[in-house]
Amino acid sequence: MHLVYGGTFDPVHNGHLRVAIELMERLEVDCIHLMPCHIPPHRGAPGGSSGDRLDLLNLSVADEPGLRVDGRELMRGGSSYTADTLRQLRQELGPDKPVAIVLGTDAFSSFDRWEEWEQIPELAHIILVRRPQSELAPGSVPERLLAEHRVESVRDLKATPAGGIYEIAPPMLDISATGVRERLEQGRSIRFLVPDAVVTEIKKRGLYAGESGR
Ligand code: ATP
Question: Is residue 97 part of a domain?
Fold first, then answer.
């Protein structure tokens, strides 16, 4: 099964990397594709450029063969629609290979507002990662989708190429990219929140530094 784990990764942190490893182990897959999305230039606070985010991700997975970086959404530019990405993956992999996208309950709760959302279950399974303090609204479209598409075992999920939703609640580290950026803006340490190689590169490039840190 091919697992796609998307996000802004602005920057990648140990919360992302730990959960990716937990998912690989629990879902018994050989690798997971970390897929950074394009961010429009008008997004708030000083963020990393596409190139910086990609380079930091590559550094973060250097010693972890199961974690692979897939920069296709960055290369494509513009809005990163999951349906487009999955169609492209499907063309490469053919119709029969199981593909799954990883989504937190927070992201899934607004799933029915995504571009071409109805196509997505035809293209891939969804691995729904339970996040604390994030429940699906009773009676909402995502809640109904989960009830209709729920698959109880990983084995059943892998038996079909797409269309299932599998819920999982891996342990999560209390780290966010926002928290990492805030610390950098304030000139504080981010050690042990991101891999050492990422700390070093952020410092070298002077990324995410506020006025005081520049
Ligand atoms: P930001 O703080 O900028 O909103 P973020 O840290 O939430 O960023 P994203 O790149 O937006 O990170 O998230 C990518 C994916 O990683 C999302 O599915 C999100 O739910 C998940 N994620 C973010 N932080 C963690 C964490 N600490 N543990 C597990 N998963 C996480």
Answer: yes
Q: What is the pTM of this model?
A: 0.92
From the CA of 9, give the closest atom in ligand 1. 10
* Residue pair 213/45 in contact by the 8 Å Cβ criterion: no
Asked whether residue 191 is assigned to any structural domain, the reply reads no
CATH for 137: 3.40.50.620
CA of 34 to the centre of ligand 1 (A): 12
Q: What is the ipTM of this complex?
A: 0.95
From 18, 39, 129, 176, mutation site for ligand 1 pocket: most ligand atoms within 8 A of C-beta: 176
How confident is the prediction for the chain on average, in pLDDT?
92
